[in-house]
Amino acid sequence: MSSFGPVSAVHPWPKVVALLLDDRHPCEGILIKILLLAANPRDTGPLRLGEETRKIEEKIRESSAAQRFSVRSAWAVTIDELLYQLNSFEPNVVHFIGHGGADQIVLETTTGTSQPLTKEALSTIFSHFRQWLQVVVLNACYSAAQAEKLAEQADAVIGMTDQVSDAAAIEFSAAFYRALGFGRSVEAAFAQGVGMLKVDGLPDADVPKLIHRRGVDPAKLVLAGASDAAMSIRRAEDPRVPAKLRQHLQNGCEFLLLSEKSVRVPEQHSAEENRIFLELGMRQSNAVFVIEVNRLSTVGEAATVLAQRLLPTDYHWYSWTLVKHEALATKLSLAMAGLRSGDHVMLVGNHRMPEWAPSRRSR
């Protein structure tokens, strides 16, 4: 699902639902980013980091959708490097190779010694990248507890319930990413990874554990990349989204997310508690949109998000009014306007550029 381009005089409004008007797979052409993080401090036992990384890259390269993947590797990862990679790459999949403990994974210091990172700290770091994260793999001993915590931040997380050998970690990863590369679901890919351990007679087959975010079905979770399509797929499984809007998303409805910069959250409330999901319609179009906004954001901010999507270069030449039953002031918060999740909201606009405004002549 691609973003709408500038409105033209010939076709002034966007197609109603991009997925329904396109026979291609909804994820086709979208780049999926996999970030491989490796850490093996000099005061820990040696691991075959290079072999696991090579196997993952090889299986992705040999898959049917290899051109849709971008794989980046980072070695001797420190906390600073972890943050740099997450910020600069915006990965959809994060795969950690290294040592772990009951409540931590082990990164490195700048001098190469161990730097433990607790599950709480790891979850806090990953919480800032939820918009892109779909899958996290912690291929480290005793990482299941960390995986449980990270399931709050990603759609699916894989951790290890016990010690895991180098051989098992490598074989599991190879089978898992080969399956993902051929478009299999996360659950199917996980099953193939476990299956390979059993076929090879390795004693670690019951060690990997798949955990998923509440509302996500891993059997339906297929990598979608950092896109509105990916967000739509995720929201279509989110029980916080009203059933009617989930159906819109499953049908390919365009999904919009209000910029975090516009969100004002009181200290006593979490961002999740303040999220609402609205159905947006337009007076001069049959288009339907689902928008995720903060209830304390202003009506004007919500209208601007849609304007920016439809008119990315000239939206400032278009004035909008967001209405439910009557016109609302642009500075009024959504909460004060009485809007709740699932409400249908109509957007009406005032054309200031007649050269691209929709024609009002009758046919």
Q: What does the secondary structure layout of this molecule look like, with pairings?
A:
Layout: E1 32-38, H1 49-61, E2 69-74, H2 79-89, E3 93-97, E4 100-101, E5 104-108, E6 114-118, H3 119-126, E7 135-139, H4 144-150, E8 156-160, H5 166-181, H6 186-199, E9 208-212, H7 228-236, H8 243-250, E10 254-257, E11 275-282, E12 285-294, H9 299-310, E13 319-323, E14 344-350
Parallel strand pairs: 1-2, 1-3, 3-7, 7-8, 10-12, 11-14
Antiparallel strand pairs: 4-5, 5-6, 8-9, 11-12, 13-14
Helix pairs in contact: 1-5, 3-4, 5-6, 7-8
InterPro entries: CHAT_dom (IPR024983)
Pfam family, one: CHAT
Domain CHAT: 51-192
Find the structural class using helix and strand composition.
Answer: alpha/beta
Hey, roughly how much beta strand do the residues contain? Answer: 15-25%
Order of helices and strands: EHEHEEEEHEHEHHEHHEEEHEE
Radius of gyration, CA atoms, in whole angstroms: 23 Å
**How many domains make up the 3D coordinates?**
2
Give the tally of β-strands.
14
Shape: elongated
CATH architecture of the largest domain: 3-Layer(aba) Sandwich
How do you describe this structure in short?
The protein has nine helices and 14 strands. It is of the alpha/beta class and 363 residues long. Strand 1, helix 1 (49-61) and strand 2 (69-74) form a beta-alpha-beta unit.
Give structural attributes.
363 residues; alpha/beta; Ubiquitin-like (UB roll); 9 helices; 14 strands; disordered N terminus; disordered C terminus
Describe the structure.
This is CHAT domain-containing protein. InterPro entries: CHAT_dom (IPR024983). Residues 51-192 form the CHAT domain. By secondary structure, the protein is α/β, with parallel strands linked by helices. The protein folds into 2 domains: 32-212, Rossmann fold; 228-350, Roll (Ubiquitin-like (UB roll)), CATH 3.10.20.90. The protein is 27% helix and 22% strand. The chain is built from 9 helices and 14 strands. It has helices at residues 49-61, 79-89, 119-126, 144-150, 166-181, 186-199, 228-236, 243-250, 299-310, and strands at 32-38, 69-74, 93-97, 100-101, 104-108, 114-118, 135-139, 156-160, 208-212, 254-257, 275-282, 285-294, 319-323, 344-350. The strands form 3 sheets. It has a 6-stranded mixed beta sheet, with helices on both faces. A 5-stranded mixed beta sheet has the order 10-12-11-14-13, with helices on both faces. A 3-stranded antiparallel beta sheet has the order 4-5-6. Strand 5 (104-108) and strand 6 (114-118) form a beta hairpin. Helix 3 (119-126) runs parallel beside helix 4 (144-150) and helix 7 packs across helix 8 (243-250). The two termini are 31 Å apart. The relative contact order is 0.12. Residues 1-29, 262-266 and 351-363 have low confidence and may be disordered.
